[in-house]
Structures are given as C-alpha cells and as structure tokens.
Amino acid sequence: IYSLDFSRDPFGVQLRRRATGTVLLNTTVAPLIFADQFLQISTLLPSQFLYGLGEHRGTLLHSLDWSTLSLWARDVSPTESFNLYGAHPFYLMMEEGGDAHGIFLLNSNAMEVALQPAPGLTWRTIGGVLDFYIFLGPDPNMVIQQYQQVIGFPAMPPLWALGFHLCRWGYRSSNETWQTVKAMRNYQIPQDAQWNDIDYMDGYRDFTLDPQKFTSLPSLVEDLHKHGQRYVMILDPGISSTRPHGSYWPFDEGLRRGLFLNTTQGQPLIGQVWPGSTAFADFSNPDTHQWWLENLQSFHAHVPFDGLWIDMNEPSNFMDGSKDGCPPGELDSPPYTPAVLGDSLSAKTVCASAKQKVSVHYNLHNLYGLMEAKATASALIQIRGKRPFVISRSTFPSQGRYSGHWLGDNRSQWKDMYYSIPGLLSFSLFGIPLVGADICGFSGSTSEELCTRWMQLGAFYPFARNHNTQNEKAQDPTVFSPAARTAMKDVLLTRYSLLPFLYTLFHRAHLQGDTVARPLFFEFPQDAATLALDRQFLWGRSLLVTPVLEPGVDSVTGYVPRGLWYDFYTGSLVNSSGEMLKMSAPLDHLNLHIREGAILPTQKPGITSEVTRGNPLRLIVALSSSATAWGDLFWDDGESLDTFEQGSYSYLVF
Predict the structure, then answer these.
(1) What are the φ/ψ torsions at residue 584 (nearest 5 degrees)?
(2) What is the DSSP track for 481-523?
C-alpha cells in the first residue's frame, strides 16, 4: 500500500501512498543532522491538518504558522505554548480526500517539533536515535488502532472508575471529607469515589496519616465500602529525607537498598517537594517496584484504599536541579537545549545528569511517570487482586496500559473549560482513553453558572472528577442553589444511565484500540467542516455531545454532520445536510444527539455504579433512514482481572 524511494542527493526518503499517490514523507527538503546530542530531520507534509504531539494546551488542530512544540515533562499550570506534564511524540495527519496516516518517533529525550507553513515539520531531539513508526490507516480510527498495536492497548478500567469522583485539596480533616460524602448521599447525587489530596498525610510524607486531623480515615473508608463506594488518595514520588534515622521507613529502607536517584557523586539527589527536602524514587529499578509495593501494603493494611492518584511525577521539584544545583557538563548543559519552559533541562525538576539504574535522567526524564505508573498498577494488582485504578499526571506512550490521566492544574475559567475538549481528544489519540479535566476548575474561584455548565460537560469526560484547590470555596454539587444542584444531579444520572454504553466503549478500546471520546472528523473524515471542530465530541461513533462553553447564553450552536440525528431526551429528529445548528440550551440542559443506525444499551441509574448495575437495562434504538440499527454490550463483574481473556463475560450484539 506504500512505496519508499531513497534519494542520495539531496539525501532523504520519500514515502508515497500508492492508492492516491500522496507523498506522506519527503525528508529530502533539508539535511539530516545526526550527532550524539543533536538529531534533526525535516519533512514536507501532504496537508495542513495535523493533530497530536503532546502534551500541550491549544486547539485540537495545530497551527503550522511557525509554531514550535517542545516535549519535556514539566510541572506547570496548563498554558498555551508551554511544554506540559507528558511527552507524546506522535502525530496524526489528515490528507486531502479524507485519508489519514500517523507518525510516531520512539524517542524519550528532550525534543522540539517545529511546524512550518510550507506545510512542513522538523523533528529535533537531543539524544537517542531516530526510530520512526508509520501508520497508514487509511482511516483515522485505524491509524490510532495501529499506533496502539505498537505501544499497547489501554487497560480495561473497573466499572467504578467510570462513575463520578469527588476531590479537593483543603479538606481539613477526614471528618470534613466524610461530611461531603454524606451531603452527596443526602441529596441522592451519584458518587462512586471520594478522594483525598496531600491533606491526609503527616507532614506531607508519603505512606503516613495525620494523627490528629485524619484519625477517622479508616472508618470513613469502611463506610464508603459499606455503601458500595471507593477511596482514592494521592501519592508523590518525592520521599522526605530529613526525618530522624529509624523514624521513617520509606526513606531509611530506600536508602539502604539504593533506590533513589543519585547525583554524579553517587549520593541521593536531594530536592524539595511538599514535605521539604526529598529524595526521588528510581522507578527504572525493579527493586524500587518491590519497595513501593511493601510501602503500599503496610499503608493499605491501615487504610484500605481502592485506587491511587500519582502526582508530581515529571518529576516535579520546587528547586532547579537539586539543593546543590547541577554539576557542569554536557548532560545538564547540552550543546543545544530545546525551547523548554525555564530554558534549562533542570528547571523545576532534577538534574539531567542524575543517575538512575537504567541510564541517566537525561534519557529517562520523560519516562518517569510511565515507570511510576507501571510500579503502581502492579502493586495495586498484588494488594487488591482486582483491576487497578491509577490516574497519573506525567505520561508517555503506552501509559494507557497502566493508568489514566487528568489534564492537570487548570483554572476556574470558561476558556479552561473549552481547552479541556482538545485536551481530552488529544489523549484519545495517545491511547489514554481514561482522561478528564478537573471539573469546575482547580485554581481560582468558580461561579455557579460555570460550575453547572462544567458539570454538564464533565459528566461526559471518560474520567469524571470534580477537584478544587485549597483556600477556595467548595464547588461540589451539594453547595449550590437547589436549581444548580438539581441540574448537576440530573446530568450525572444521565451519565450513570449510559454506563453500559461507556463500559462497552472501554472494552473496545482495550480490545482493539478504538477511541472512547472521539473527534467528529474520525467518523466523518470526508467532511472538511469537521476537521477543526473541538467544541463538541462523540462518545464512540454515535453519541454527539454539544456543551455550552460560554457565560450568559441559553442556546448553543453546534455542527451536526450529514444524516439523521435524534435528540437523546425526546427522540425528536434532526435531518442535517451537514450544517451548524442553533440548539436551545437553558442552564439545566446539555444537548445530546444519537446518530442514526445506533443502538445504545442503558440502565436505570442509581447513586453508585454498584447500585446501577443491579437495575433493569433498556435499549435506545435510533433507526437509520433505511430502518436499520446496530449496537453492542460488553458485560462482566466490573472489577475482576482479565475477564475477557478468561472468557468470563457476556458480549451481546443488537
């Protein structure tokens, strides 16, 4: 399906799609530069429709107008043009005529990708080798499936992971956390999991519990379990290094076994994170995985958590490099530093020269979150014997096998709510379907209107969690006016009614790499009007979500692709020629449309996924113009390991 031509002068390769003659790669346009710490290769692009290359904040469709995207894991509030928490050197390209291809550069070093209006693209990395994978589609869904055949298909999440999660930084005690849970139950608002941020720890140290404020945490967790709910808490990779010897096992034992990142002098590198001075666990060392498991086992015996939230794993450091800075040399001061925030590889992280078991941090930095997620998922399996639930901030290709992702420390602003959609869809491309943003915004103060609209959008994030920062007023559904609270409750009940459909989409993601939250152009690749759409999205191929993303309106304009679409709530028909339509959107309404020819399995919603799964099922059948429809349902016990692989499931086609 392709031809490859090699050219000696000018030096390069040309890759052509045989069916259309489209040139997908042409690297003869600029010289190849191949030095130890500077590798550069350029190509012409067949169109300007380029997606992927994370993690960044911006529109789904990239601008090729001389923009440079840097890839180097960094702890910073999502801001346009900055390199953010994860690194994903993969792009998807839509060609003229609707074909698609993808390119993956398997390289973990700091890099930048320069986009040019030619249209063209330059890869520039400062280590490793040029190891390209090319996926020929020819349909965008197939490109992403092919990419995941290389990096691995995502893990099947437990059903409860798809329920509503509630969290904040600044619950002042376990009793205050408990009050929120009880208020949610009191109003009969669906909730599957309650979370805690670093407040629960003693002095912000991993694997500890504040003996005053969080004494009742074991009882709270027991109460959650009794009500079919789950508990998730935060963990950071920085381990406090200043406790008296013998008083903090995680550090003492990690030191004894040699499990931390070391300086070039062979001593643990000391930075600063929440607990003060910290050493950093080296997850490239298999022995660290065992130590991590032992720490989690002893904490779980006291607080039987169900899932883990791994944060600060870029790794984040409140100082640049270490308390002693970084040594001179070509790792910390390479001949060329990509355009990273802070203009230095050690900005707000550890020294690139730091030694790890497998290599130097220079090569492993972008892999840190992936390696920690692998250790964490493995520990959860050994402790609970069930499907692990992990949400990670830093990510790298194949992350989806071990964890989901949230989009980091966003703000309570309308534009942040909009940017969450391209963020969500980009991570669908990266093979991490379990993704969402902090609903109602993390930092800053939300408003009732913003939070209501965001809860409506967030109810359709594959991973739906409302999270808030400390010293801000509460923003969980129980604190708002009866009208807003009811609107939030209603949209969560709508989500819960669709859990059989959503769970089946995750099964298809796990089985063959289908996306869950999906850009419109994936289903309508021939329709050029869909190529830049990122204010709407689909669940699977058939449920269209059109959220309100601005204040003070009671209607929303959205694109409805050609064909018949049914209003989710009323069944009324929209026959579209492929056009922008104005839809009524009062504050208590989220527009949802079902595509013709679809059958959606639904269930009468309860206030947890456990209650919901015992309720009657029903089908919503949206007939096509030729009076046909198709749908499917994957169903198992919702939490056992490898149910598909072991044949303990039901799969029905309607």
Answers:
(1) -70, 135
(2) -HHHHHHHHHHHHHHHHTHHHHHHHHHHHHHH---SEE-HHHH
DSSP-assigned beta bridge partners for residue 8: 11
Provide the pLDDT for residue 66: 98
Which residues, other chains included, contact 317 with Cβ-Cβ below 8 Å and sequence gap of 6+?
238, 271, 272, 273, 348, 349, 350
d(CA 567, CA 620): 11
- The answer to whether 243 and 250 have CB atoms below 8 angstroms apart is no
In a 13 Å sphere around the CA of 461, the CA atoms on its Cβ side amount to: 36
Alpha-helical regions (H) of 51-173: 140-151
Instruction: For residues 495 and 439, give the distance between their C-alpha atoms in angstroms, rounded to a whole number.
Output: 15
Instruction: Kindly report whether the global pTM for this prediction surpasses the value 0.90.
Output: yes
Looking at this protein, which amino acid is placed at residue 542? Answer: S
Q: Is 615 exposed, middle or buried (0-12, 13-18, 19+ CB in 10 A)?
A: middle
Strand 404-406 and strand 390-392: the pairing is parallel
Contact of 245 with 321, CB cutoff 8 Å: no
Domain boundaries, the chain: 2-151, 159-326+341-406, 508-653
pLDDT given at position 320: 98
**CA gap 498, 459 in Å, rounded:** 11
Of 561, 154, 103, give the one whose Cα is nearest residue 373: 154
Entry field: residues in the chain: 654
pLDDT at residue number 286: 98
Structure tokens at 294: 């032992």
Tokens 């986009």 found at = 115
Nearest to 475 by CA among 437, 436, 441: 441
Give strand ranges (E) for 175-219: 193-196
Residues with catalytic roles:
311, 314
**Order of strands across the sheet with 271-273?**
238-240, 276-280, 271-273
Rounded to an integer, what distance in angstroms lies between the CA atom of residue 388 and that of residue 156? 9
Decide the pairing of beta strands 591-595 and 543-546. antiparallel
Task: Say if residues 545 and 508 touch (Cβ distance below 8 Å).
Answer: no
Q: Phi and psi dihedrals of 506, rounded to 5?
A: -65, -35
Q: Answer yes or no: same fold for 2-151 and 508-653.
A: yes
d(CA 393, CA 314): 8
Contact 477, 469 (CB under 8 A): no
Q: Which fold has domain 2-151?
A: Immunoglobulin-like (2.60.40)
Residue with tokens 């960044």: 56
Query: In the beta sheet, which residues pair with residue 290?
Result: none
Q: Are 180 and 197 in contact (CB under 8 A)?
A: no
What values do phi and psi take at 425, rounded to 5? -70, -35
pLDDT means per 10 residues in the chain (654 residues)?
97 98 98 98 98 98 98 98 98 97 98 98 98 98 98 98 98 98 98 98 98 98 98 98 98 98 98 98 98 98 98 98 98 98 98 98 99 99 98 99 98 98 98 98 98 99 98 98 98 98 99 98 98 98 98 98 98 98 98 98 98 98 98 98 98 98
The residues with which 88 forms a beta bridge, in sequence order, are 54
CATH H superfamily, domain 508-653: Golgi alpha-mannosidase II (2.60.40.1180)
How far is the C-alpha of 490 from the C-alpha of 528, rounded, in Å? 35
- Look at residue 141 in the predicted model and tell me its pLDDT: 98
633 and 601 Cβ atoms separated by less than 8 Å: yes
159-326+341-406 carries CATH number 3.40.50.1820: no
